[in-house]
From TrEMBL:
InterPro entries: Acyl_CoA_acyltransferase, GNAT_dom, N-acetyltransferase
Record bears the keyword tRNA processing: no
Residue ranges of the TM segments: none
Matching Pfam families: Acetyltransf_3 (PF13302)
Source species of the chain: Actinacidiphila polyblastidii
This protein's name: GNAT family N-acetyltransferase
Domain of life, source organism: Bacteria
Residues annotated as domain N-acetyltransferase: 17-180
Record keywords, A-Z: Acyltransferase, Transferase
Family of this protein: Belongs to the acetyltransferase family. RimJ subfamily.
Length: 182
């Protein structure tokens, strides 16, 4: 029996993960995360043209603007999802937003929560904004649970728009990245 401790970013029983910067080879992963069961809370699957645009955008985002990652299982090196953070204005403040997707066959293992904790570290180290927010639909129990397990604080319900032009009711979850300047 292996007595090696569970890495600090992975809860007991969760598959240990790491984040890898999004690469040109990740288009296949993006296509897999575009399945109807993965996009039902995001307005449905995108066209191949929109996926190609998204893939290009994911490769360009970097630095203070944010960053996109593939979620990789430590044990196998297999990419099983995506996560990232990007800049936006929320309630007249510059903040980061995060979002994720884990392939259906890997869901329920704590992978998304472990990846969300890692993306908080990335945003804290690379960014310049005080807050990181997530905006899952109110009725999306799994994504709301990820926010709670990753240490985000529920700020309440809010009106949100995703995709653009499509109003939804979301929960506003946030975590602090840096202390306020005094």
């Amino acid at each position: 029996m292996d007595d090696a401790p569970t890495p600090p970013h992975a809860p007991a029983g969760a598959a240990p993960v790491r984040l890898r910067t999004w690469s040109p080879d990740d288009l296949r992963l993006l296509r897999r995360t575009n399945a109807p069961e993965m996009t039902e809370h995001l307005g449905g699957p995108e066209t191949e043209e929109k996926l190609a645009e998204r893939h290009e955008r994911y490769q360009r985002i970097d630095g203070d603007a944010g960053r996109m990652f593939a979620i990789v299982l430590e044990a196998t090196g297999e990419a099983v999802g995506s996560i990232g953070f990007w800049g936006r204005t929320w309630q007249d403040q510059p903040v980061y937003e995060t979002g994720w997707g884990v392939l259906p066959e890997y869901q329920g293992r704590g992978i998304a929560a472990a990846a969300a904790r890692l993306v908080v570290v990335e945003a804290r180290e690379r960014g310049d904004r005080r807050w990181l927010h997530a905006f899952p639909k109110v009725e999306h129990a799994a994504s709301n649970a990820v926010c709670r397990k990753a240490g985000f604080t529920l700020m309440g319900e809010c009106a949100f728009e995703y995709p653009k032009g499509h109003p939804i009711r979301s929960n506003d979850w946030r975590t602090e990245l840096s202390a306020p300047e005094i």
